[in-house]
Write a structure and sequence with these properties.
heterodimer, A: 1023 residues, alpha/beta, 7-stranded mixed β-sheet, 6-stranded mixed beta barrel, 44 strands, 27% helix, B: 175 residues, mainly alpha, 8 helices, extended, Cytochrome C (chain B)
Chain lengths: 1023, 175
């Protein structure tokens, strides 16, 4: 029996109707029953029952004795049972989003975005939410250690010992004029940078090298060539009516994802009457690509040609741009006419001309964003120069590309770190101090950084563990986690935020800045020698000198400081300096561009793209179980990395992936190779294979070690650039198969329409276009009455970008356990909220929709009617409750749930052996034991908290008082929660909108979650 | 032997005794789960009768968190020392408290009232409604040694909720 092809499909197996799909559909749970097939004999059974009863009776008749230990002096602000909130700044990546840290009984248990922060505006990405778990990581160092360089073995030492040895080494270096280098990541803290400068000035050969594994250096270099100043502009996606990305992923990992996501989604509201258009030109399917209206797949080598062809359209073919008559421009662009580039890149003829016309029509309101590591290393800067030329031609300078308040979120320089490597090779570096980076892991293996470390006399790492770099160091002086630290941040010159400790340091770690102060003082030279006081004092003094005078606060500095700590973020009145007059675009920069086009590669090796995954970033939090279990938003695979291959290429190579097992292939780039399982990824260019970096760690800890392979090993370092893209690679089958834990592979939509979508043009004609969802059936029974509050939710599929911040927020808030790869392989992942990713259209080049799916709290809940013990019932406010202590584990509720949102504790996932990990649990939420069903509760503990707060004030709950964890963290505000009995609440308004529909409404479950269908700004849908 | 003659039949006697024992055993087994009367030995002989009864110190003076939070909490030792730096410093029990306080060790009280982990109870809401502490904790001001006087099981809570028109949705107590 052939079934109709589903319009939206979750995996290629579902699309093709493979036999194993049909077989899996029959099974409620992925694996056959775990019970043994032997039935015990009646005599044995009775013996067991009798013995069990006897033991139970003989056992606990006495309750255990429990002690209460009171405070000696209770802290004033902390009431046991009530949360205390601190304003701080996230330190997981240099974007420096504002956070509010929720602490209970003196320990942080949840991070929430800070609404007042001008960039993140209340959102917090998945990695930011997960960074809380890093504080309690049991594999953190407990104190300073001395490392044996030969074996990597670490032995505990004292701070005094470490300081003494380091002081000796530094004194030697100072005396002999040897180089002292401090290698860090991007330091967004101006005060820390000032301290670093003061420290390094002590040494005649002192230098600070800033290096980012996720590098935006090509942008800064191109800015220097084009405008004379090295900076990263502040990109304003909220001002762009047309966004063209060239391999960039602003919604995923580029520069400031939370801010970009918010800005991006602010222009995707069809009800406002206008919608932006997003064109993604990229080799792989990035998160931004899944949210684009139009996508073009190209090889990484062609990104530059395409940018130049667009410029050619604007300057040469139909001269309209300001620099059209310019000889240098004409010469540079002459070799890149659109037709030839389209032919080389495999685009339809006329595509680039049409796109150039669209860009021109949106001049001043468009943005061309090129990924700094998207093109091959030799073309990276040229690509940025081309993008700058386009933005300048389109008048985007000062509008969507703001150079007056540049971003300080990526200060790393590839040239600087590569020259450091050369210096190390020559034996010139005497002392190397490493903070916030892991170069032995993230630098291309061809550079041999670990080997070169042997040529440095003395090395200290400030890492929180003996990582891949620190094992070749002499000492590790572990820094605090950012939740234990003082710091400040300046993501751009108009915004300063503070980090304050939310918990006293758990272990004998010391702030990196305090360590520098101690060393600076012990050397007795330079400006630090005479200082006293801690890093906290230093920070305060800097703010007294730098920030306080600019603040025109009437109060004293101490009051100002308290206020700054309470608010967490401070904004400068003057938003940055004016653009220097000499800042006009310099056509000489175009000399970067090769005059002749490189011949189109044909046949031969495939083009490898190493991309930065949303879940792991550069691998810095590889030991974070929440991130390892978080499925990649596009492939939905967790606990592994893999080689993504386009479907046509996979067929040609004879590799496939189904039923969570994939063929293993060898990827060989010449200077390195390794084996990885294959993932057939729709949306890839057929010549491109993609591997995520950030995996394959060997010294992360018990969670992260040996998960996947290290993509950085395959990277290139050529011509002063680190290349992650366009690397020629050979992919060969090994004949082996390996399991890949994909969470999207085992549930099927049964051809029921779950997703509805339309185009913006159709929406403008008829706001309910595309909404073919059935309404509920007429019923014999009257509806349930909900007097008082009734909680409901609206999810805008147009706003959801699939970033999965909500998933980690839910995990942190509700004590959702991590189960590990083998359990996920059985389809038993525990996430209460999942993001379903649906493809539609051409399997080689599909369109994508992300749909968060959670318990729908159905009014006619199918789960409630079948529970034999009434562990799941409805309450008077419309919530479907799950009473854990009543549940006996029949799992009939999960069987009956059409949305498949219920999760069962097959094993005891929650007994945590490590003490520190127990501290992260939310005390307001029951920790579920074995045999108990759980599911989304609409954060009932937050509802209760909200009602309590309102009751204490004597007012009813106001709309927006209660936010579920997922809603709170969403950078794009896709989720809205509230009282649907209140006609004025935001969620009621959203429900009434014509775009709203219920999933599986034909089943008459009457869910309270309304989804708003997807609107794409393109001509027709799903062509 | 006449059939049905229970008094003389040995196996039937044995069955009868076994049945009685089973019933008694079962009843005592299930009854042993009640904590009424649990009055464990505390590290010092603190008497609520003296403090709350004779001296009429209000409950909330020491257990001040009861009106601010779900937990009533045992008071911080500084609260004891508020008076006992000068009051009755001759008593060995007071001296022991002072010793613990000086040496930075908390006094290890033995917990008497305990709900299971899956039960959410908020003192704050109930105090706000005006219920006296004695409603659930009994006549504490008459207790020399604190003991649990009500069984505090679900039936106890539900009956009071029903009588006072408080919510009886499951999620009221089982979050």
């Amino acid at each position: 029996m052939t079934e109709p092809t589903p319009k939206h499909w979750r995996s290629l197996a579902e699309l093709h109707g493979d036999p194993e799909v049909r077989e899996l559909r029959e099974r409620e749970f992925l694996t056959p029953s775990e019970e043994t097939t032997e039935i015990p004999s009646r005599r044995d059974f009775l013996k067991l029952v009798g013995a069990g009863a006897a033991f139970a009776a003989a056992g606990c008749a006495r309750r255990p004795v429990e002690k209460i230990l009171p405070y000696l002096k209770a802290p004033e602000e902390a009431i046991p049972g009530k949360a205390v909130w601190y304003a701080s700044t996230c330190g997981e990546c240099p974007a420096a989003c504002g956070v509010l840290v929720k602490t209970r009984e003196g320990r942080p248990i949840k991070l929430e975005g800070m609404k007042e922060h001008p960039l993140s505006r209340g959102g917090l990405c998945a990695r930011g939410q997960a960074s809380l778990l890093n504080l309690y990581d049991p594999d953190r160092l407990r104190g300073p250690v001395a490392v044996d360089r030969n074996t990597g073995a670490a032995n505990a030492t004292t701070w005094g010992g470490l300081d003494a040895r380091t002081a000796n080494a530094l004194r030697e270096a100072r005396g002999g004029g040897g180089r002292v280098v401090l290698l860090t990541g991007t330091v967004t803290s101006p005060t820390t940078r000032a301290l670093i400068d003061e420290f390094l000035k002590i040494f005649p050969g002192g230098a600070h090298v800033s290096y980012d594994a996720v590098s935006s250096d090509a942008i800064a270099k191109a800015q220097e060539l084009c405008y004379g100043e090295r900076l990263i502009p502040h990109y304003r996606l909220d001002r762009a009516d047309l966004l063209v990305t060239l391999g960039a992923d602003p919604l995923g990992t580029f520069l400031s994802p939370v801010e970009f996501a918010r800005d991006f989604s602010s222009r995707r509201k069809p009800e406002s009457g206008s919608m932006s258009k997003v064109v993604a030109i990229e080799p792989i399917l990035t998160l931004t690509g899944t949210n684009a209206d139009v996508r073009h797949r190209v090889r990484p080598e062609h990104l530059l040609c395409i940018a130049l062809a667009l410029a050619h359209e604007l300057h040469v073919r139909i001269p309209r741009a300001p620099l059209s008559g310019n000889a240098a421009v004409g010469a540079a662009l002459g070799g890149y006419p659109a037709e030839t580039v389209e032919r080389d890149a495999g685009l339809k003829p006329g595509t680039l001309a049409a796109l150039a016309d669209e860009l021109w029509a949106n001049r001043g309101k468009s943005l061309v964003l090129a990924g700094p590591q998207a093109a091959p290393a030799s073309q990276a800067v040229a690509l940025q120069v081309a993008a700058n030329l386009l933005n300048m031609a389109l008048g985007n300078e000062g509008a969507t590309v703001e150079m007056a308040t540049p971003s300080l979120q990526a200060q790393g320089s590839e040239e600087a770190v590569l020259s450091l490597v050369e210096g190390m090779r020559a034996g010139e570096v005497q002392v190397l101090l490493i903070q916030g980076v892991n170069p032995a892991y993230t630098l291309p293996a061809a550079l041999g950084f670990a080997e070169l470390m042997k040529r440095v006399r003395f090395i200290v790492s400030f890492s929180d563990r003996v990582d891949e770099t620190a094992r070749h160091a002499d000492f590790v002086a572990p820094d605090h986690h950012y939740l234990e630290s003082w710091n400040d941040h300046e993501p751009n010159r108009a915004v300063r935020s503070l980090t304050q400790p939310a918990i006293a340091p758990l272990y004998d770690t010391r702030a990196f800045q305090d360590t520098l102060l101690a060393w600076g003082r012990s050397l007795g030279a330079g400006s630090l020698a005479a200082t006293t006081g801690s890093w906290h004092d230093y920070l305060k003094e800097r703010w007294r000198g730098d920030v306080y005078p600019k603040s025109d606060a009437a109060a004293s500095f101490d009051l100002f400081w308290e206020g700054a700590l309470r608010e967490g973020v401070w904004q400068a009145k003057d938003r940055g300096r004016a653009r220097p007059a000499s800042g006009a675009f310099r056509p000489e920069a175009l000399s970067e561009i090769p005059a002749t086009r490189a011949p189109a590669p044909s046949g031969g090796p495939l083009s490898l793209v190493l991309y930065v995954p949303v879940t792991q970033y550069d691998g810095r939090s590889g030991n974070n179980a929440w991130l390892q279990e978080l499925p990649d938003p596009v492939s939905k695979i967790c606990w592994d990395n893999y080689v993504s291959i386009a479907p046509s290429r996979a067929k040609e190579l004879g590799v496939s992936e189904y039923e969570m097992k994939a063929d293993v292939v060898t990827v060989d780039v010449g200077h390195a190779k390794f084996d990885l399982p294959v993932h057939v990824q729709p949306g890839l260019h057929p010549d491109v294979v993609a591997i995520a970096v950030g995996f394959g760690r060997t010294a992360a800890g018990r969670v992260g070690n040996q998960v996947g392979q290290n993509g950085y090993a395959l990277a290139q370092a050529t011509g002063g650039r680190i290349g992650l893209s366009g690397i020629p690679a050979r992919v060969t089958r090994t004949g082996r198969r390996a399991p890949l834990a994909c969470v999207q592979g085992h549930q099927y939509t049964e051809n029921r329409p779950i997703i509805y979508e339309t185009t913006f043009a159709s929406f403008l004609k008829d706001p309910s276009s595309g909404n073919d969802a059935p309404t509920s059936e007429p019923s014999m029974w009257s509806r349930h009455q909900y007097l008082g509050y009734r909680w409901g939710m609206a999810i805008d599929l147009n706003a959801c970008i699939g970033c999965a911040a909500c998933m980690v927020a839910c995990q942190a808030e509700n004590n959702v356990p991590v189960v590990g790869k083998s359990i996920v392989l059985r389809g038993r992942e525990m996430a209460w909220l999942r993001i379903d990713r649906y493809y539609s259209g051409n399997p080689e080049d599909p369109e994508t929709v992300h749909q968060p799916m959670l318990c729908q709290h159905c009014e006619n809940a199918p789960c409630e009617t079948v529970c034999p013990v009434l562990a799941t019932v409805h309450n008077s406010e419309g919530l479907n409750l799950q009473i854990y202590n009543r549940c006996v584990g029949t799992r009939y509720c999960s069987n009956n749930c059409p949305y498949k949102v219920r999760r069962f504790n097959w094993f005891d996932y929650s007994s945590v052996r490590e003490k520190s990990l127990r501290l992260v649990l939310n005390p307001d939420v029951t920790v579920r034991s074995k045999g108990v069903m759980e599911k989304c509760t609409f954060c009932i503990q937050r509802i209760r908290d909200g009602k309590e707060r309102a009751k204490a004030l004597g007012v009813p709950v106001q709309d927006g008082d209660i936010e579920t964890a997922c809603m709170q963290s969403c950078p794009t505000q896709a989720i809205t929660f509230g009282d649907i009995n209140n006609p004025k609440s935001r969620v009621s308004e959203l429900m009434k909108r014509p775009r709203g529909y219920h999933v599986l409404a034909e089943l008459n479950t009457l869910p309270v979650v309304t989804y708003e269908l997807k609107v794409r700004n393109r001509e027709e849908v799903g062509s | 032997m006449v059939s049905g003659d229970l008094s003389t039949s040995k196996p039937k006697q044995a069955i009868g005794i076994a049945l009685v024992l089973l019933v008694l055993g079962g009843w005592s087994f299930f009854d042993s789960f009640s904590n009424v009367g649990y009055a464990p030995k505390q590290p010092i002989p603190f008497s609520h009768k003296l403090h709350a009864g004779t001296n009429k110190i209000p409950c909330l003076y020491c257990h001040s968190n009861a009106e601010r939070s779900r937990h009533a909490t045992v008071p911080a030792m500084a609260v004891c020392m508020n008076c006992h730096t000068v009051v009755r410093t001759d008593r060995p029990a007071i001296q022991m408290v002072a010793q613990y306080y000086q040496s930075g060790k908390p006094l290890p009280w033995v917990r008497v009232h305990r709900e299971p982990d899956y039960v959410y109870f908020s003192h704050q809401w109930h105090i706000a409604r005006g219920f006296a502490c004695q409603t659930c904790h009994g006549q504490v001001q008459n207790m020399d040694v604190i003991q649990q006087s009500k069984d505090l099981k679900m039936g106890f809570c539900i009956s009071c909720h029903r009588a006072n028109k408080a919510p009886t949705d499951c999620n009221t107590c089982h979050i």
